[in-house]
Design goal:
- By secondary structure, this protein is mainly alpha-helical.
- The chain is globular.
- It is 47% helix and 8% strand.
- It has 5 helices and 2 strands; from the N terminus they run H-E-H-H-E-H-H.
Length: 125
């Protein structure tokens, strides 16, 4: 059984994205609870972007789960929160996913587009 004190190694990118969806939703809910206590209305469903088709298929029950039978209770929680309408998961294309800038090697125009989007245009115009 996994505890948060242990290191976790995902066996696939779909599994890693599903864990990331879990952690993201957990942080979003915590922030939402604090906001509600402060009288700030939080719009629901909370929108979570996922770029791995395998994870999105698993989360939305549109994929084949047979390869992901080993996943733990976090995945069930992600589905339960989705079913309750607390959150909604949507597909983010790779080139629109800002995190790809930090996790993949990009060259040429793709790198420049990410750089400009994330850091602003630094050219002397």
């Amino acid at each position: 059984q996994y505890t948060e004190d242990e290191d976790l190694i995902a066996l696939s990118s779909g599994e890693a994205e599903t864990y990331a969806a879990h952690d993201t939703m957990k942080m979003a809910l915590q922030g939402g609870f604090v906001a509600n206590e402060m009288g700030i209305q939080v719009k629901k469903p909370m929108m979570i972007g996922v770029d791995a088709a395998a994870a999105l298929g698993f989360i939305n029950n549109t994929g084949v789960a047979s390869r992901m039978k080993h996943l733990d209770l976090r995945e069930a929680w992600v589905k339960q929160v989705r079913t309750k309408g607390t959150c909604e998961y949507y597909k983010v294309e790779g080139l629109e996913n800002d995190a790809d800038f930090f996790t993949k090697i990009h060259q040429g125009l793709t790198f420049k587009n990410f750089q400009d989007r994330l850091m602003g245009c630094l050219d002397d115009e």
